[in-house]
Design goal:
mainly alpha; globular; disordered C terminus
Length: 350
Amino acid sequence: MFGTYRFLLACMVVCGHTWYFLMGRLSWLGTYAVFGFYLLSGYLMTRVLHETYGYGPRALGRFLGNRALRVYPAYWGAMAVMVALLIAIPGVAGNQTAMVFLPGDAAQWLYNAVILGIDVDYIPRLVPPSWSLHLELVFYIMLGLGLSRTRTTTALWLAASVAWTAYANLTDIPFGDRYASVLGASLPFAAGAGVYYLPRLPTGTANRVGLLAAAAFFLHALIAGLAYASTSGVAFYASLALTTIAVTVLRDARTQPRWRRLDTRLGDLAYPIFLLHMAVAYFVQWVFPAAATPPRLWFLTTMPPLLLASVLLNRLVEKPIEKARVKVRGVEIGALKTARSNEAAEAARG
């Protein structure tokens, strides 16, 4: 069910940037969703490193190569869409032109293309959420180097992340530094890695509780602006705790065959939605200026074209790359061990 979960997290990001209604702009939804993505990445990357790639120089090369094929082609596609919009409609970014504009020199183009090195304050950003991809890439490298290789290293990493987060809150370090920095993002990645080592749940229990755990996370996110004095304090870490529980339970849930295909398709759209949502939102705002004026629903006018654009990016860019990713991924560790065992058995019989 992680496909549906990732899809809903992506929609939260869109909502956080485009929703103006009732409680005002629901900006905190995006921050909660980003930490949700980080936690899920921490779990999934730890799992594939243990069960698919392994560790060591060759394994690291395959792992990072596959991550690059996952991140960059679709990202460059979204970057090209924004460049085309900025050329065709110079004012399409509206009041965000201080952040989103065509690079003025080779270094700016290179930073935007490579992602690594782009922090939340870097301008211009042709794909506005690229700063979060920079953090993803940093932790991919550290995970591949063995940060979550054992239960002990993961526990130490998680303890250090909790200690830094406590220190940051006690000393009033700004929220941006607790959220959009390597030290801030360390906590959800470490928590996600820790989920990998937790005892497995019975499938029946996970199936019964999984939807409730996910619903609790999303419901909490929706009401946080009303339930808390601030959405960046206790509410923020309560959201992280809820997404940790949700991922832990969904890890062991099993979808019915008739829902599996839908879950996969929704998951396929999550990353394109994340990449394209601001470009599409800018275009919608330019075509229908009233859609982005409170209390109009900019989110609802953005979602239909965004879903279409995301399907196209997935079909035209991501799907053709999938064969290369499978080739780079190579033989899974379990299959490799089985093959070697069979070879040894044959040799013994011979």
